[in-house]
Specification:
By secondary structure, the protein is α+β, with helices and mostly antiparallel strands. 31% of the residues lie in helices and 23% in strands. α16 (432-440) runs antiparallel to α17 (458-468), α16 (432-440) packs parallel to α18 and α17 (458-468) packs antiparallel against α18 (473-490).
Length: 530
């Protein structure tokens, strides 16, 4: 075995190394002159406005990007991601993987302590991942760790994972933002405690959480990585309404906001002392259709609705040109992506009506669309409603706040009342496995994962398994390309678009950015002064 240290690695580098046996506190926002006054006094408070509140602060039991974003500041993982989604070391300084991608050994950073003073060591790693892979806990990210067969504490600074079978994407799973290490002392207090009282080793400590109002974090003076200049306090506020979020940025009441809706980019870009961060996300937006219920059991109906939605118009009307139609079940930028249909499903009302008639619904039908209650999401839902109405499909919109929507979506099929779901998915491992398996594998129906369509195709399931059976990039890419082609034709979802990441930043704010997976990284966030 060889050893890999330090630098971020691309997927192909990681998998090539693996195949060869080488691994690879103010409570309110302070804006305008107040920010600089606080800076001069040596106390920096950086206020961040995000689109929703966290649901849980237990990393292994978080499925929403907002929760994962907050957790990233409090916790470290063995591995993490750079801003461009390359794997980097965190609590592991180096690692090795066996040629068959079944054994992964991590060498750990020494002298690190959790925020409560508990020492970090291999036993803490084992305790965390033993919990994560235990089905009795019913954690939302169980699927990421299910491949683990056993965990061996070699010594205080070395831990070895053995997998049930080869799993070519495992290093990406360890870098996923859910793979954070929680203090054993906190774990001992139970899952309800850690969901509201996170204790990690990260650059910021948890202070308080007032649901619906704010989460407050304080800089960790004992953070293991020196030479970083972070804010003394982070105040993270849920601001659902787009205009209010942008107003906080323009008025100086927030130094970083995410997202900035496309319709407001011009105004934000022209404002003094503010810039807009732009980068392509790996987000795929879609409408899931319940394939086990009528009328969506019929593939012709599902295909008809794909023809009925004008994706280019959605981009112009809702995103103001900051998106592009999906041309595969996953977005460009995901490792293992391959295009299926250039330009996506074409807009063809006549074809949509013809397929609806062939599917037994010549006069259309009525259905309900579940969705979030954010401003841009509402606008998107209303636009889709109008488009589907042109082919005779009457859509009732049912917006919900994030926690309620998550709760109803994750009910098992016997209890699940969904018909259509407006959703987005970013594979936070950066790999095709996590782009496809949670959404389209037959074993990923809620509450296990995010297959909101309750879609199942045995051939797709087999291809997804094959993609994990090897660490060879070319072989994995071939499996995922064929699976993508089949999923595309089956149309369990209305494929919408891949969007750009748009965040607003005030001048003098550093180290704050939105990741391609739609999470936020504030680990280095701070203020520099004029």
């Amino acid at each position: 075995m060889g050893t890999r240290k330090g630098k971020g690695l691309t997927r192909r580098q990681l998998l090539r190394h693996t195949a060869a046996g080488v691994a690879g506190a103010a409570l309110s926002g302070i804006g305008g002159p107040w920010a600089w006054r606080a800076l001069a006094q040596g106390a920096q408070t950086l206020t961040v406005a995000l689109y929703a509140d966290a649901i849980s602060l237990d990393p292994f039991d978080s499925n929403d990007n907002l929760s994962l974003a907050v957790e990233r500041e409090i916790f470290d993982g063995l591995l993490g991601f750079t801003p461009d989604m390359k794997i980097r070391p965190e609590l592991a300084t180096s690692w090795e993987a066996s040629k068959d991608a079944r054994s992964f050994t991590f060498h750990l950073r020494q002298g690190v302590k959790f925020h409560d003073g508990t020492p970090f060591n291999a036993a803490a790693v084992k305790m965390n991942f033993d919990r994560a892979r235990d089905p009795n806990h019913k954690l939302k990210k169980f699927s990421l760790y299910e491949p683990i067969e056993s965990i061996d504490v070699v010594n205080d600074a070395t831990v070895r994972f053995m997998l049930h079978s080869p799993f070519g994407a495992m290093l990406y799973n360890f870098a996923h933002p859910s793979s954070r290490i929680i203090s054993p002392a906190a774990l001992a207090k139970g899952e309800q405690y850690i969901a509201r009282n996170p204790v990690g080793t990260g650059p910021f400590k948890f202070v308080s959480w007032t649901p619906g109002q704010q989460i407050e974090l304080a800089r960790n003076p004992d953070f293991w990585q020196s030479g970083r200049r972070q804010a003394d306090r982070l105040v993270i506020r849920p601001v659902v309404e787009d205009a209010s979020r942008v107003a906080m940025l323009l008025g100086g009441d927030a130094q970083f906001v995410y997202p900035v809706p496309g319709v407001q980019v011009d105004a934000v870009s022209k404002a003094s002392g503010v810039t807009v961060q732009k980068r392509w996300s790996i987000y795929a937006f879609y409408v899931a259709m319940h394939c086990q219920h009528e009328p969506f059991r019929n593939v012709k109906v599902r295909q008809a609705l794909n023809y009925a939605v004008d994706k280019d118009a959605l981009d112009k009307v809702v995103l103001r040109g900051f998106g592009r139609p999906l041309d595969a079940p996953m977005a460009p930028g995901v490792a293992g992506y391959s295009q299926v249909q250039a330009g996506g499903w074409p807009y063809d009302v006549a074809k949509a009506k013809s397929l609806l008639a062939e599917g037994g619904f010549p006069k259309g039908f009525e259905t309900t669309l579940w969705m979030g209650n954010q401003t841009e999401t509402m606008r998107l839902g209303e636009t889709i409603q109008q488009m589907l109405g042109k082919v005779g499909v009457t859509v009732r919109l049912q917006p919900m706040e994030a926690a309620t929507l998550t709760a109803v979506r994750y009910k098992p099929i016997a209890e699940n009342q969904s018909q259509m779901n407006l959703a987005g998915w970013s594979p936070s491992t950066g790999d095709a496995d996590w782009a496809l398996r949670p959404l389209f594998d037959g074993d990923s129906w809620p509450p296990t994962l995010f297959n909101l369509s309750f879609y199942k195709n045995a051939q797709v399931d087999e291809l997804l398994k094959d993609g994990l059976s090897t660490a060879a990039p070319a072989e994995r890419d071939k499996d995922y390309a064929e699976a993508s082609r089949l999923i595309w034709a089956d149309a369990p979802v209305i494929y919408l678009y891949n969007s750009q990441i748009l965040a607003g930043v005030r001048t003098g704010t550093t180290g704050a950015y939105a990741m391609p997976d739609g999470t936020v990284d504030l680990r280095d966030a701070g203020l520099t002064g004029k």
